[in-house]
Amino acid sequence: MDGWCDTKACWTFQGKKVLACLGGQLGLHVPEGKGRRVRWMGYCGSIAACEPHPKSPAVAYTGDRNGTIWQWDLMDGRKKTMVESSNLQNLRDMAVGADGKHVHVLVDADVHGSAKVIRMPMGKQAGEEIVVLKTNRATQLERCMLQGKQYLATTDNRKVVVWDGNNHHKKLKLYHTKRLTCVALHPQGKQVVAGDDTGRILQWHVNYKKEIAQGGNKNSTYETPKVTTRHWHSRSVRCLAFTEDGTHLLSGGEEGVLVMWQLETGKQEFLPRLGAILTSISLCPERARVAVRMDDNSVLVVNLASMKIDACVQGVKGPARGTPLEEVAGSAGVQPRSGLLALPTANSGMQLFDVCKMEHVADLDTTTRNNILLADDEKGCIALEPRVTHFAFNKDGSKLITVDRWPENDTRTKGEESLKFWQDLEGGKQNQHMKYSLIARTDNPFTKSVTCIAYHPEDDFFVTTSASGFFRLWTHDPEIRNAPPWRCYSMLSYKQAPSHAAAFSWDGSLLAVGAGSAVVLWEPQSNKRLAVLNQEESRNSMASSIAFVTREPLMVVALSGRNPSLTVWDLLSTSVKWSIRLDASHVVADPLAPRFAVVCPGRCNPGVKGNKSLNQNAHVLLFGPQRPYMQVSWRIEGSRYPKAIFATSDDTKFASESRPLGIGSALVILSENRAISLATTTGGRNTVVPEAKAPAWKVEKDSSDPHFALGNLLGEQVRVLPSKVEGQKEDNLHTATQPWSALFDAPSHSLPSSVQLCTSFLKSIMADE
Q1: CB of 676 within 8 A of CB of 688?
Q2: Which residue(s) pair with 193 in the sheet?
Q3: Overall average pLDDT of the 411-422 stretch
Q4: E strand or H helix at 615, and its extent?
């Protein structure tokens, strides 16, 4: 699956375990006993459906959006491909047949088409279309076993279609005046219920087994069944399910409330304030429990006798509605000391997630706003909600700075931003529990939006930048009486150029702030401007990311725009050490080793033209600072805007095998769909291994650019080559295209070493034997 989804959970092993997909992994969860026990089966891809085997309790099936159905052995975690067909692209849901030899697959339509249900034999690549819907996006595929036969149902805009799994030619169609969103079949064949997008539940009193056997709607004696309407939900009904004895009906929707209806009396019982939209309900076959899937990537195990939650399995939560795709992963970070992944979530919240154990740790609500689920308007515009756009921790994680932004379409706030200052009540000793309290707040710190927050590596002060052209320095002074603990002590600017990046050096002695295409170095304590670093060829570009190399006097700058580039600056001489043309979204330095990772988004890959599949996949490159050769590269399949994060912790949470090349910090890659992976060179569970063939990364030479004059003379000197070990010898010298006099046109900082110069000079004057 992706990082989050609404895939329905299922019960296995006679109702003792729950099979659910969380964080890109298929997990077998045990809701009973002390603590939460989970056994991870393996990576399950962009999963859309999960089904148990009808006869074997230790076998399950998953279907992904790419059209592949896998069979899993839940005892040892092995899987094998059962069905792989291009006809199953955009798989939505599936139902395994009663004999386990075939599967019904619900497939969403392409741009111009209709959704359909396909009956596929297991192990085959071709199937039979049995139901073609009028809608292009289906909702679900409901199944029910009745006297050894399997009956299936689905919604088709304003009607429900029910048929026999072994004889699809006879169908029962039930009609409504509103769009239907979900359907459920009575376990004794007495009723068919469906929910619509207005909150109503339609209850057709019809023996669907008998009607289908007689030909359904085509039977001359068919009479329109009696309909009962039940209405409690104020918004769309998203899921329905009958209890095993058929006396109660469970419903859930966008209010975040589980409702249990007693069918004879109409009496209702509620489990309110679940905090998210209910998307599916799975009934336990042996006990009075259900597994409720929520759209925040969690599964709740609910005891129907007491209407209480017995267990909760929480995965990576999704972002706030309306978050731009490129910002979904880019706003993530790591909490110091604990090494936990920190993620902004819906309704202006934050989540701490343990990557090693793949489990949720804690939540933080940064606003005093109730978790009210907003509905979209009639024109289909998404109802936005406040979200955390930036955050930063101090060295020990005891202090947290957040920026939350309200939506532009809110008439009361109109895009208001709030800079908030938090402090851990435990003083950082148990900050993994995230017990932060709000101690100060500043509304609208700039006339335009905040673009970056960078915290000092040692002291309690930080910098905030904005698109207005100004940046502020904030310090913590709790000992000053009658004054807030945090205050802004400086507001600076360089030519009022908009700033989108800032970073402190690893020892805290320098502050680098982007100003348009330039990077300005400041002394953070005295506010003294030290240097302005700029390249002539970087015009019409923007400094989008800055990072200082650990224990080295080097700084890495990524420029985006018309002339994207990646440049390493020597801070001792304020000159360029090396520079390459590369479209990089952000750069992150390893805090434990002198190296850095670069994320190249999937929107364009230098040197790759005419291949749309490659352009959709982002790449993460690992560089050493001394040479422009990448050590390792990873291709992130299906992701265009991932985020690379170096994660460290005091308790050595990450093993050496999970660190690239076995040294430094662990490299965590977060996709925009919130799928989490560890970038390694050895492989393993939940990891991304280096691609076998490196992409065609290549520097484009420009004879008019003085930086490449030396390359025109000696051949292409600056190239990005896939090399797992830095220092590997490569013969990059080619025949000169210009005379030696052109050497004086090259800048001094781009001259190669004397060994390379002498070797090239000797080769040019000596005749080949």
Answers
A1: no
A2: 184, 203
A3: 80
A4: helix 612-615
16 burial type by CB count under 10 A (0-12 exposed, 13-18 middle, 19+ buried): middle
* Residue showing tokens 């000092």: 456
Task: Give the sign of the dihedral formed by CA 162, CA 47, CA 201, CA 185.
Answer: positive
Task: Report residue 614's pLDDT band, with 50, 70 and 90 as the boundaries.
Answer: very low
**Number of helices and strands in the chain (H, E):** 5, 56
Distance in angstroms (rounded) separating the CA atoms of residues 71 and 222: 41
Give strand ranges (E) for 658-734. Answer: 666-670, 676-679, 687-688
**Token reading at 698:** 């290549």
Rounded CA-CA distance 390/455 in Å is 12
728: its two tokens:
């590997």
Q: Which of 101, 104, 114, 64 is nearest to 84 (CA)?
A: 64
Check whether 541 has a pLDDT greater than 60: yes
Q: Are 125 and 83 in contact (CB under 8 A)?
A: yes
Asked whether the beta carbons of 601 and 616 are under 8 A apart, the reply is no
User: Is the predicted pLDDT of residue 231 greater than 70, yes or no?
Assistant: yes
For residues 433 and 319, what is the distance between their CA atoms, to the nearest angstrom?
A: 21
In this prediction, residue 122 carries a pLDDT of 86
Nearest to 637 by CA among 41, 48, 108, 46: 46
- C-alpha–C-alpha distance, residues 650 and 656, integer Å: 14
3-state secondary structure of 412: coil
Tell which residue, 67, 137, 148, has the closest CA to residue 105.
67
SS3 385: coil
SS3 213: helix
If 0-12 CB within 10 Å is exposed, 13-18 middle and 19+ buried, where does residue 62 land?
A: buried
Interior angle at CA 375, CA 282 and CA 229, nearest 5: 60
Q: For residue 357, what are the contacts with CB-CB under 8 A and spacing of at least 6?
A: none
pTM: 0.79
Does residue 564 contact residue 581 with C-beta atoms inside 8 Å? yes
CB-CB contact of 589 with 505 (8 Å): no
CB 631 within 8 A of CB 661: yes
In sequence order, which residues have a C-beta less than 8 Å from that of residue 762 and are 6 or more positions away? none
Nearest to 588 by CA among 642, 516, 536, 627: 642
- Residue 238's identity, in one-letter code, is R
CB burial class (10 A; 0-12, 13-18, 19+) of residue 388?
A: buried
**For 481-518, how does the pLDDT look when each residue is reduced to its tens digit (9 = 90+)?**
666 788 898 999 999 999 999 999 999 999 999 999 99
The CA angle 464-470-475, to the nearest 5 degrees, is 40
DSSP conformation class of 328: H
699 within 8 A of 580, measured Cβ to Cβ? yes
- Residues near 481 by beta carbon (within 8 Å), at least 6 away in sequence: none
* Residues 334 and 645 sit within 8 Å (Cβ to Cβ): yes
**Residues 23/31, Cβ–Cβ less than 8 Å:** no
Closest among 258, 257, 264 to 289, alpha carbons compared: 258
User: Residue 338: which region, alpha, beta or left (left: phi > 0; alpha: psi -120 to 50)?
Assistant: alpha
pLDDT digits (tens, 9 = 90+) for 3-12: 455 688 888 8
What is the per-residue pLDDT across 85-111, written as a single tens digit (0 to 9) for each?
Answer: 888 888 889 999 888 888 999 988 765
Whether the CB-CB separation of 471 and 454 falls below 8 Å is answered with: no
Pairing of strands 630-636, 618-623: antiparallel
